[in-house]
Automatic annotation (TrEMBL):
Residues 27-364 form the Leucine-binding protein domain. One of its GO terms (biological process) is amino acid transport. CDD domains: PBP1_SBP-like. InterPro entries: BCAA_transport (IPR051010), Leu-bd (IPR028081), Peripla_BP_I (IPR028082). Keywords: Amino-acid transport, Signal, Transport. It comes from the Bacteria. Belongs to the leucine-binding protein family. This is Amino acid/amide ABC transporter substrate-binding protein (HAAT family). Residues 1-22 form the signal peptide.
Length: 401
């Protein structure tokens, strides 16, 4: 009996020692740099933070005996602030990985900080093609979409359908400029023509002067090289100007289901748009989206779904590598295919671009919709190898040619 009791006490002591050791280990911190309060808040913002927390909870809340902690900060759409937040997270707060970084100028700033410190940074909300080209890094991942993929999927379909003259309304910063450039290339290579463009400041409330120029151009398509609140305001004001009724098509080159909900199907019906994810595509997307909606009260955008997928992929790689060392973790991340509700047979290339299918949708007419958020009908699935820039075209210094 004495031996049995001593054995029980020894086992209990070992367990308590193991628990104490796990508690002694610092938490594994991942940090989101987000637009929590401005024009991209619905696309990323609190929803991205929630998606990251869901990924951590579903993973079990800890890895390598360390609790996982999710941080988030608001960059206020200021590149210098984004850089400062990244520096503070990595230098002072012990963050091992940065996720999302909504908006391209802010992402480029944070990316340089992470690159200098050899830390992993995963972009879900920003779109600039520069993030996997000139600004690429060995520990940088561009996960959800980019300006090349958006332009390729939307522009190609539009020109092939006869919408072959374009005028651009462009947000005057890295993302907008890249989106206009990439779409212009697709339009002209497919036999179309760009008849003009105008640039507007970020977070514009009055698009009237820009829309008048677009209307006067007589272009068949007015391409919106912007996002978030700018896209919503431009489309609403274009409708007020009677531009769509006048026969011109407005094409949002980056739009999310939250944008379409803000605009309303009466105004948005017939719009063509490219997306990396839609909540109502299949049983897997609906199952995740139902859980997300219970917390956020609306379906996830592609950026938010991408946050969940990428955080999960990162944590699995940390577990498999047995370390948080960036080189070891990134090696596993690039070697391991991504198969979840967000992507099937997804793969992170050497330039950091995560390759996955893209989708071309048309916005439903009000009569076709069964209710709120039932906004899209699928027109085409474009394989990732066709949607995204090829490695041969890459300007990333890491790509061996």
């Amino acid at each position: 009996m004495k031996n049995i009791l001593s054995g029980i006490f020894a086992a209990a002591f070992a367990l308590s020692a193991s628990a104490a050791q796990a508690q002694d280990k610092p938490p594994l911190k991942i940090g989101g740099i987000l637009d929590m309060s401005s024009l991209y808040a619905d696309i990323t913002g609190p929803g991205s933070e929630t998606a990251a927390k869901m990924a951590v909870e579903d993973f079990g809340g800890e890895v390598l005996g360390r609790k996982i902690q999710v941080l988030a900060a608001d960059h206020l759409n200021k590149a210098d602030l984004s850089g400062n937040i990244a520096r503070d997270m990595l230098d002072n707060q012990g963050v091992e990985m940065i996720y999302d970084v909504a908006a391209s100028a802010t992402a480029l700033a944070a990316g340089e900080i992470a690159k200098a410190r050899n830390k992993i940074i995963i972009f879900n909300g920003p779109g600039s093609i520069r993030l996997s080209n000139e600004a690429c890094g060995p520990y940088t991942v561009h996960y959800v979409f980019d300006t090349f993929g958006q332009a390729n999927v939307t522009g190609l379909a539009a020109v092939k359908s006869g919408l072959d003259t374009w005028f651009f309304l462009t947000a005057d910063y890295a993302f907008g400029q890249d989106l206009e450039k990439d779409t212009s290339n697709v339009v002209t290579k497919t036999g179309g023509k760009v008849v003009g463009s105008v640039r507007h400041p970020l977070n514009t409330s009055d698009f009237s002067s820009f829309l008048l120029q677009a209307q006067a151009s007589k272009a068949k398509v007015i391409g919106l090289a912007n996002a978030g609140g700018d896209t919503v305001n431009a489309i609403k004001q274009a409708a007020e100007f009677g531009i769509m009724k006048g026969g011109q098509k407005v094409s949002p080159l980056l739009a999310f289901v939250t944008d379409i909900d803000s605009i309303g199907l009466e105004t948005a019906q017939g719009l063509l748009l490219a997306e990396a994810f839609y909540w109502d595509m299949n049983d897997e997307t609906r199952a995740f989206s139902k859980r997300f909606m219970e917390r956020v009260k609306r379906p996830p955008t592609s950026a938010q779904a991408g946050v969940y997928s990428s955080v999960t992929h990162y944590l699995k790689a940390v577990k498999a590598a047995g370390t948080t060392d960036a080189a070891a973790v990134m090696k596993v991340m690039k070697e391991t295919p991504i198969n979840d509700f967000f992507a099937k047979n997804g793969k992170i290339r050497e330039d950091g671009r995560m390759i996955h299918d893209m989708y071309l949708f048309e916005v439903k007419k009000p009569s076709e919709s069964k209710g709120r958020w039932d906004d899209y009908k699928l027109l085409a699935t474009v394989p990732g190898s066709e949607a995204f820039q090829s490695l041969e075209q890459s300007r990333c210094p890491l790509v061996k040619k």
